[in-house]
């Protein structure tokens, strides 16, 4: 392994692009810098950059309109940063790791070649908010950095251990529907949560059992037994389970047909490559707490005093505690901790308090002092010392998880 080489870990969201830069000098990824452009769906886009003492936050970018523009800006910014000598030439970037939401039956990360690219492309209909943007970036990066090896790390991989009786839907088992099953998502986040939390608890991951909550604009829950995903709230697509900023979460499947007579018709957002029905667009982009409150900002929702704000919060808390209760039973009460992660999970002290207060009957309790003043650690204990089970807040790091996976299989990936 060349000590001069670097790894880019690329995390494309539906309206943002985050890139972390890691040194490949050792077997442990060392983050050199992190850059993020957000607001791509609600201009102006804004820049956030961190490298050592160099900090940029909230800088508006007038000419960045989409993911491609954002990638071009990010690469130019990195190459021209005098404080980043490890990245002065395009050939310095050995690997580009891409977070890809839906990987289908792939049980591990893949080198992106023609076959894997088209496989991911075929899965885009199952994750229309994410896979398409990831593919666009992969294609653009391949053209911009032809010597860089592109890798796909899938959110579905972590959940490949879910037992068949949990992942199978009770529908006719034709050859086509055999692939219509629960895949689960946020897997890179859950792998990061497991790694960090087991270290905090001083236990090997293989003997750590958690109920983990990834709460952000997209939200999910996961039951982890002895280091493996046992169940998770998202299913065939990221739509099922908990409500999100614009996603409905679980609803009666017949609901959309009562809301519109054209649920099965193609949405105006569909393209030749990407097919989205009106029902899918409605449930993915026009529901969630935005539909109830008029904003996707959950911080504003939980601080709001309107009845619709309270209703949105109550719905989310109710759905979360329902899943935690079900997973607690599924794990037989053998739980090392309840873990909050994701933007809302990490920052939402009031939401954590509401959730945990509703779970006292199971042996969870929060320390209001610790919960209101979460420190800077990767994992922070916010639970009561008298409680039977721990309550933790974890700063998940999907980019570091990808970089670590790249280093672990470096020689294999180099061979293609």
Automatic annotation (TrEMBL):
Its EC number is 2.7.2.1. ATP binds at residues 18, 214-218. It is an enzyme of class 2 (transferase). Keywords: ATP-binding, Kinase, Magnesium, Metal-binding, Nucleotide-binding, Transferase. The active site is at residue 155. Pathway: Metabolic intermediate biosynthesis; acetyl-CoA biosynthesis; acetyl-CoA from acetate: step 1/2. It catalyses: acetate + ATP = acetyl phosphate + ADP. Substrate binds at residue 99. The record marks 186, 247 as: Transition state stabilizer. GO terms for biological process: acetate metabolic process; acetyl-CoA biosynthetic process. It comes from the Eukaryota. PROSITE patterns: ACETATE_KINASE_1 (PS01075), ACETATE_KINASE_2 (PS01076). Its cofactor is Mg(2+). One of its GO terms (molecular function) is acetate kinase activity. Mg(2+) binds at residues 11, 398. Belongs to the acetokinase family. This is Probable acetate kinase. It comes from Aulographum hederae CBS 113979.
């Amino acid at each position: 392994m060349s000590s001069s080489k670097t790894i880019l870990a690329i995390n494309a969201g539906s309206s943002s692009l985050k890139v972390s830069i890691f040194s490949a000098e050792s077997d442990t990824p060392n983050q050199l810098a992190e850059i993020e452009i957000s607001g791509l769906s609600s201009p102006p886009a804004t820049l956030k950059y961190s490298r050592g003492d160099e900090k940029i936050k909230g800088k508006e970018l007038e000419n960045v309109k989409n993911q491609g523009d954002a990638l071009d800006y990010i690469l130019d910014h990195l190459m021209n940063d005098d404080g980043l000598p490890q990245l002065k030439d395009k050939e310095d970037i050995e690997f580009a790791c891409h977070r890809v939401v839906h990987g289908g039956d792939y049980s591990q990360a893949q080198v992106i070649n023609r076959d894997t690219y088209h496989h991911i492309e075929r899965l885009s209909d199952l994750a229309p908010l994410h896979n398409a943007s990831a593919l666009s970036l992969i294609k653009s990066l391949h053209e911009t950095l032809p010597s860089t090896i592109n890798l796909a790390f899938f959110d579905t991989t972590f959940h490949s251990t879910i037992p068949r009786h949990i992942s199978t839907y009770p529908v006719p088992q034709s050859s086509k529907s055999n692939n219509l099953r629960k895949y689960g998502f946020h897997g890179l986040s859950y792998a990061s949560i497991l790694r960090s939390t087991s270290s905090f608890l001083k236990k090997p991951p293989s003997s750590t059992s958690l109920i983990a909550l990834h709460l952000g604009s997209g939200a999910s829950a996961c039951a982890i037994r002895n280091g493996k995903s046992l169940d998770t709230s998202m299913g065939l697509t990221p739509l099922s389970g908990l409500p999100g900023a614009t996603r409905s979460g679980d609803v009666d499947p017949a609901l959309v047909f009562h809301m519109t007579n054209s649920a099965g018709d193609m949405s105006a957002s569909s393209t030749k490559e990407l097919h989205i029905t009106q029902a899918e667009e409605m449930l993915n982009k026009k529901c969630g707490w935005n539909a109830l409150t008029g904003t996707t900002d959950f911080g504003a929702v939980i601080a709001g005093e309107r009845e619709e704000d309270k209703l949105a919060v109550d719905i989310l808390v109710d759905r979360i505690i329902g899943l935690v209760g079900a997973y607690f039973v599924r794990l037989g009460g053998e739980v090392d901790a309840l873990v909050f992660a994701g933007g809302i999970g990490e920052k939402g002290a009031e939401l954590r308090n509401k959730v945990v207060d509703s779970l006292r009957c199971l042996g969870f309790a929060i320390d209001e002092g610790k919960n209101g003043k979460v420190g800077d650690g990767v994992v922070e204990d916010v639970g009561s010392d008298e409680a039977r089970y721990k309550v933790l807040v974890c700063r998940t790091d999907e980019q570091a998880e990808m970089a670590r996976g790249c280093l672990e299989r470096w020689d294999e990936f180099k061979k293609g």
